[in-house]
């Protein structure tokens, strides 16, 4: 499938309905690897696909142009999902790769680039391709050191690579075709929370730069092309970068014999009494990326784990490692809880992660319980939840 965006500008990407795992991100809705073609005096591809989608990409490309007529392949970012097919693509087309020095280094470390022609561009570098001019704006650490975006001056199109994307396979290509805009923004938020969050402090500067450009389309490398909701997605990126919190508690737990689960539910009931929005997730049953989406702007983060073999439960340990890497905002309240048999070990592990993240840790005697919590213990958990929800 090929989709025309403007005269001589096409989406020729591939839709991966089956992908369910993306370095820890469970992509339950699949994803897309968006590749774009600009036909001009020089014909240009923007980014590529994973290796196994090379065939689909070539079918799309051949339906518009002879691949041998491609002059340049712009690579905005070296990660494998956008470059896995690049060796074959360069061999087949003979095209020159346009990228920045850091990305060139990353490509050389991942692929056999012997014989490739490169043009490297500096910050705000420009290349004329005929009627059009491509401007390259480096966006390092969003989310790799090599990231840049490409702006087509005449068409006012921003090719933003990972920024503003979503992991979502769909038949719709443009935001205005997508019926449920709230869902689209929720998917965009989930992507932000799991890909861009560690480097969010850099985003306001990038948005400032982008606001100086007239942008009619934002074409990311995953998901939907933005046309009608450009202002909204830029504002959302600023909001999600700001570390502002809503009155939400995320209670993420796992449980061995339902004791820690009962504590989670009782604390949650107390919080709900105070009109706190409560989200309770069993970490063995919920993708970590869904939990992180809700933690992004949550005021409270409560993590529960039973003690198993002198340590924390494995699914909770996995989540803590994942959350620590993503470094959510420090202005959160952290609560650790859980049951144990004879030696309580799990909550200390959780609190260590909270300390590393700078969370304000709230403790209470009711938050650990030997074996099975009885009614009086659960009542204490409930009352703790209420006290927590009433805190200013
Ligand atoms: Fe979609 Fe960072 O690759």
What is the CA-CA span between the terminal residues? 54 Å
| CATH level-two architecture of the largest domain | 4-Layer Sandwich
Main structural class: alpha/beta
Ligands (ions, cofactors included)? MU-OXO-diiron
Task: Kindly provide the name of the CATH class of the largest domain.
Answer: Alpha Beta
* Largest sheet: number of strands, sense, barrel closure: 7 strands, mixed
- Write down the domain tally: 2
Neighbour order of strands in the largest sheet: 1-2-5-6-7-8-9
Low-pLDDT residue spans? none
Pfam families: Flavodoxin_1 (PF00258), ODP (PF19583)
InterPro entries: Flavodoxin/NO_synth, Flavoprotein-like_sf, Metallo-B-lactamas, ODP_dom, RibonucZ/Hydroxyglut_hydro, Rubredoxin-O_OxRdtase
GO molecular function: electron transfer activity; FMN binding; metal ion binding; oxidoreductase activity
Domain Flavodoxin-like: 249-389
Mind explaining what this structure looks like?
The protein has 392 residues and is an alpha/beta fold. The protein has 2 domains: 3-240, Ribonuclease Z/Hydroxyacylglutathione hydrolase-like (Metallo-beta-lactamase, Chain A); 246-389, Rossmann fold, CATH 3.40.50. The protein is built from 12 helices and 22 strands. It has helices at residues 54-62, 80-83, 86-93, 101-110, 181-196, 203-211, 230-241, 259-273, 288-295, 314-326, 346-357, 375-390, and strands at residues 3-6, 9-11, 14-16, 31-33, 36-38, 43-46, 70-74, 96-99, 118-120, 125-128, 133-138, 148-152, 157-161, 217-220, 246-253, 277-282, 298-304, 307-308, 311-312, 333-340, 360-361, 368-370. A 7-stranded mixed β-sheet has the order 1-2-5-6-7-8-9. Strands 15, 16, 17, 20, 21 and 22 form a 6-stranded parallel β-sheet that branches. Helix 5 packs across helix 9 (288-295), helix 8 packs parallel to helix 12 and helix 10 (314-326) runs parallel beside helix 11 (346-357). The longest helix is centred in the middle third of the chain and has 16 residues, at 181-196. The chain is elongated, with a radius of gyration of 24 Å. Bound molecules: MU-OXO-diiron (FEO). The site of MU-OXO-diiron has 8 residues, from helix 2.
